[in-house]
Design brief:
The structure is a single chain. This protein is α+β, with helices and mostly antiparallel strands. It has a single domain, classed as Clam (outer membrane lipoprotein receptor (LolB), chain A). Helix content is 21%, strand content 39%. It has five helices and twelve strands.
Length: 259
């Protein structure tokens, strides 16, 4: 943010103050990585956990209008290889379940499901889903056992922006820069350094669309074995996973056509 971005002179002073404050925070490069590492180590040590989330993904129309699509869901994880992730939005209602031997992708709207063999652990399961079906588990990068290495490996610049409140929780606000993305994360302060908000901004488009994830209702402890069971609902059809294209963005949307 710069003074030139504010249209009123009164706001100009405020913008300048914010710019100076953020610039000062850049000196705390090592602190941001240390806080990030503490968070990833804490999360990876939780053998079983569950968390609810709300996500927003932005797309840009041909007329350069930003449109945002929202979804909510829950992720339950029992390391090393069991998980259940749900995502419900305006255009998709899906769940992904691993019982340790089989991964099921269930399109609840279309009453279709696909199954593939599981992998050795959660990290490899995430990679397998990305490769086989272009499916993402919300927050997977934050839950992985190697999260710090994955998140920090391409970081060019990092800083502690300051403090922030997310859903009433005091957090450390961190900002990072990669070659193609800028990303921010808000991590709960105190004895439970949990990620509370995660924002990724693309730098490959002039319009800079964003993906945002808010994480709430963190719970540690036994999730329960039945959470990872799947029984095909009556009337559902089994299909090949390659035929499933489940997205938060409607495939037939014509965002630039409406006026």
């Amino acid at each position: 943010m710069t003074k030139a971005s504010c249209s009123w002179s009164v706001l100009g002073g405020l913008c300048l103050t914010v710019a100076v404050a953020v610039g000062t925070a850049q000196a705390e490069d090592g602190s941001a990585l240390n806080i990030l590492k503490t968070m990833t180590e804490y999360v990876s040590k939780q053998g079983s956990l569950s968390v609810k989330y709300d996500s927003d993904v932005e797309v840009v129309s041909p007329s350069l209008q930003k449109i945002q699509f929202s979804a909510s869901g829950e992720v339950s994880l029992s390391r090393p290889d069991k998980f259940r992730a749900t995502r419900t939005g305006g255009y998709a209602d899906v769940e992904i379940i691993s019982d340790g031997s089989t991964v099921t992708v269930h399109d609840r709207d279309a009453k279709r499901f696909a199954q593939i063999a599981a992998a050795a652990d959660f990290d490899k399961l995430v990679e397998k889903l990305r490769a086989d079906s272009i499916l993402e588990i919300p927050g997977a990068d934050l839950l992985a056992s190697n999260a710090f290495e994955a998140l920090s490996s391409e970081v060019l610049e990092s800083k502690v922006v300051g403090s922030g409140i997310v859903d009433g929780v005091l957090c450390d606000h961190l900002a990072f820069r990669n070659a193609e993305t800028d990303w921010q994360i808000w991590i709960e302060t105190g004895e439970r350094p949990l990620p509370r908000k995660y924002v990724i901004t693309s730098k490959t488009f002039v319009t800079a669309p964003q993906y945002s994830l808010r994480l709430r209702d963190w719970k540690a402890g036994d999730v329960g074995g039945k959470a990872f069971e799947f029984a095909p609902p009556s009337g559902s059809t089994r299909v090949e996973i390659a035929t499933l294209r489940i997205d938060e963005i409607p495939a037939n949307s014509h965002l630039g056509a409406q006026k």
